[in-house]
Amino acid sequence: MTSAAVELxxxxxxxxxxxxxxxxxxxxxxxxxHAVMGENGAGKSTLMSILFGLVRPDSGDIVVNGVERHxxxxxxxxxxxxxxxxxxxxxxxxxxxxxxxxxxxxxxRRGSLDRKAAAARVxxxxxxxxxxxDPDAVVGRLSAGARQRVEILKALHRDAEILILDEPTAVLxxxxxxxxxxxxxxxxxxxxxVVLVTHKIHEVLAISDEVTVLRDARxxxxxxxxxxTSGALVQAMTGREVREVGNPGTGExxxxxxxxxxxxxxxxxxxxVRDVSFxxxxxxxxxxxxxxxxxxxxxxxxxxxTDPIESGTIRLLGRDLASLDVRRRRALGLAVVPEDRRGxxxxxxxxxxxxxxxxxxxxxxxxxSTGWRRGFxxxxxQRDMARRxxxxxxxxxxxxxxxxxxxxxxxAQKVVIARELSHDAPVLIAEQPTQGVDIGAIESIHQRLxxxxxxxxxxxxxxxxxxxxxxxxxxxxxxxxxxxxxxxSRADASTERIGAAMAGAAEHRQAGEHEEAxx
Amino acid sequence: xxxxxxxxxxxxxLAATPVLYAALAxxxxxxxxxxxxxxxxxxxxxxxxxxxxxxYTGSAWAGIAIALVSTALFSVVLAVGAARxxxxxxxxxxxxxxxALGLTGFLLRVLxxxxxxxxPRGLEGIPSMSFLRDIPVLGPVFGGQTVLxxxxxxxxxxxxxxxxxTAPGLRLRGIGEHPExxxxxxxxVARTQTWTTVAGGALxxxxxxxxxxxxxxxxxxxxxAGRGWIAVAAVMLVLxxxxxxxxxCLGFGAAEAFGFRLQGLGAPQQLxxxxxxxxxxxxxxxxxxxxxxxxxxxx
Lengths: 519, 299
Prior knowledge:
Structural class of chain A: alpha/beta
CATH superfamily of the largest domain in chain A: P-loop containing nucleotide triphosphate hydrolases
Largest sheet of chain B: 2 strands, antiparallel
Structural class of chain B: mainly alpha
Number of helices of chain B: 13
Helix content of chain B: over 70%
Order of helices and strands of chain B: HHHHHEHHHHHEHHH
Helix content of chain A: 25-40%
Number of strands of chain B: 2
Oligomer: heterodimer
Strand content of chain A: 25-35%
Largest sheet of chain A: 6 strands, mixed
Number of helices of chain A: 18
CATH class of the largest domain in chain A: Alpha Beta
Strand order of the largest sheet of chain B: 1-2
CATH architecture of the largest domain in chain A: 3-Layer(aba) Sandwich
């Protein structure tokens, strides 16, 4: 059972000037779970796209089950026994689980869609692989974990024996990750071949049999997982040792600067945030954990003032924010690193210099609030500030005139962090500040947040990564179904506890709430 | 005032029919993700083609066939432009509507040397189903109607059931909801969009034929008078579901038929003519207030 299911030999692919894959070899043995690791931009997505027929390689061979293949599209790959679970699900929200699974390969009876046969097929596959699903549930109402199970079922329905999963754990709770891994192990034991694309080292060590590491379009490491260490994997991924950023819990926090009391947010009759109270003090990082969509983003929007609130009060530096718009709240002392980097965090078609100067454009030296210069920008000051911040924050760019959209995710995020911290606001809200950012940039962003805290800044850090919260936060709040269901001090913030609270297992949980908040 | 008599029901059905054909075309296009606002122009072209066809051949049936085929061809511009070349369907549709208005007016002068109205002596209308005349209920409701009237309702229901219960219907619905997902599962998105939109063109041809050779027997410039836009509104009102279209279109038909009745009772024509449009607007606003939102489906 250890013959090669897939062999990629000497795969190369260029996109204009960018080399995405450069002579990459990859061997996937049947019945194993193979992790493909690498930082963003290392070429792992391109390699998987080539394997699944979405992208054609410039050179190199694809051999599946001993037969050389030239995929013209994903359908050829599917026909050859491959299945792919994309990071961003490709599901029809208005349809049922069964309809989604059989779409494109439907069982029919006398000309019409055979819904019974479709449901039976879903149940059969669910039982065989331990994928718990209800064939008649409407997909749009399902949790992220359940939606992912539907994607896996889609591949299995087409008799995929080689499963590619692209960053499958990004949207899952720790419990869901465990059950996904159980499913994958079961599939591998049954003879399937699983490819796991990820950058999370602990997952690779926990689930895979073999690892291939990519860096700068080339293979930089091949390991049997049993013999691999996290240090060796990091070294292969980054080419250097990354020092873990710790949280040297420094002096006592100061006075309360951000205070949220009994906050409630309702969106079209659905309670998104209920009765949320917390405070953040100077010199403190307060973490907010939770699966995406449990009200964290709504809390941030309420503090920033982009969405209306239903009830409760928010005080910044002792002042009630109710009557202040976003601009006045920021002027009072609020900086925000938004979750949606390309949509809210930056204006992607504008230059790096312009992006860095946003918010500074009304005050000297770049803008002017009075006199004849009012309304005009001082472009020299703008350029100077941009160059200084680019150097300070180590933004890798060919110049301040380059549009932010042309930067990598990590560098674009450094631009956002640099701009927000340059306002010297006493309170910073950072929402998923390292999402989609490579390890080197994560390290630098984490250090910036800690420095800011040590200089007396108050940080509200929303993250879906428990490890990130453990590394940075002085306290961790856990949100579930719009409520804060648990709070842990730094010492108590274990992965198990936070994970259980994220899944709604804390004692304050009330039945039926999760569905409402998730829909 | 006797309003709820069978004659009134017949008038409602008659007024609803052209709108229903066009709305079915719009709903099918919407199901594959092509927002079709060319219904007005396509229906107008269909009306012209039906009258011209009937005039030249002397047969109303040939007129219907010519309307059906030529409007389908007319819709190829929108279908291929939007599906194959990824152009903005709104822009193409606006062009289609303007072209239909100008072209029909132009051809009216060039071919028939008239302007405004074309109603030559002996123009064949579509025969009514007079064989039903002596059957109770069916007689008074359908006896004076063309076969295109019941056909519109049958087609709507058939299309709704087909979408819901067949594999091709499932694929069609998926394309509109998530074209990338459909494509990744082997469905040819552009081709399905093209053929669905062309089929919609054929339906708009029937809409025009019924309007110009069924409801009346005449072609006048801009005779669709916004019915294609009412159809667009109906499609949005029922969230693209053909099974619900008859309800929405009967509402419009009732408003128009009711307006005629009021006219008979002395209400000013300008007011009663405006009734269907005013009611459509009100219904759209009301549903928007009730169900409208930035996020209609869970994200």
